[in-house]
Amino acid sequence: MAEEKLPTRAEDFSEWYNQLVLKAQLADYAPVRGCMIVRPYGWALWENIQAALDKRFKATGHQNVAFPLLIPKSFIEKEKHHVEGFSPELAVVTIGGGEELAEPLILRPTSETIIGHMWSKWIQSYRDLPVLMNQWNSVIRWELRTKLFLRTLEFYWQEGHTAHATREEAIGETRQMLDVYTDFAVNEAAIPVIPGAKSDAEKFAGADVTYSIEAMMGDGKALQSGTSHFLGQNFAQAFEVKYLDQNGALQHCWTTSWGLSTRMIGAIIMVHGDDQGLVLPPRIAPIQAVIVPIYKTDEEKASVLKAAKDLKAQLIKEIHQSLYDKALAFRRANTRETNTYDELKKAVEGGFAFAPWCGSGDCEAKIKEETRATMRCIPIDQTAVLGREVAAGGACVYCGKPARDRAIFGRAY
Ligand SMILES: [Zn+2]
What does the alpha-carbon distance between residue 336 and residue 344 come to, in Å, rounded to a whole number? Predict the structure, then answer.
């Protein structure tokens, strides 16, 4: 019986993606709406992603830990912006063992609160700092519109959490982990991401600054593929995370958090996949090409094995680089340096607009309302976006006031 063919990406990108994920047996829909089951092939890919990241986290001094899934509901209410941001997505447990609980528990949407609570007990002096932790787990966010790997009620990720004595050190950590994500995306997943700062409207609930890596999918839409947050002293104040400095004065810590999830699998599929199906970057692909060395004599054995090894190294290099180059060329071809609102509107139809913006949340909100494009990030390296210099300054594409930055706008997953 003939296999039913995938729709082409041009016909229906969304359906191409859905069918590909199912047919390649990466994941399946769970009996509970919005949940996914990651199948062995998908999980093997995730394990390779985990290994590549975990190695980098340990090389930068972080240790793995495990905090519980259940968090007292009162914890989430202690940081004002955090509770506002996460309330609509919370799953709450009110009954346990057949009894109504004295205090409802939430299924963690992220773990800043419980970690802050424990740090207030563990951190006493500057000698206890920095604290550099990471945990691999799953979290629950009650999303309304879901899509396999990209947005599901429960998803798998890592969440890094660190506490520092100074603001500068915490900002340095935030930027370091953004660099780690960028390095992973470029050198393992072959995805040319744009690292940059989010707007106030798009930042993490409770953060002072959020950085992200943004990638362009095969349909020209954006996918936020990893985030790193400078949390200032917001959580340290809410949870009384304090330390005695070298002069004996009590200070609040400065904290960070950073996360990358199974969303990355969705990014890999949508960046590299083609009309034939799945294309995986060789450094993290679960199934590699098989090279069979054939020799008759011992003399031949050594030279044949060497040739096979050389061929393997060459294939992984070459394939990785050609996937990366192709994705970068696609992203640059579909990113327009726009200077007027009309140009922006046209650009976001099928890609990114790289446009001057005054920094106002009002302009950002109007652009979103009128074009469905969101401010993805202010790229740290403005020249890398298009591979050439872009004009600085200018006038905001929406209001015409002097621009503060040139920012990426695009429709997003
Ligand atoms: Zn403006």
Answer: 8
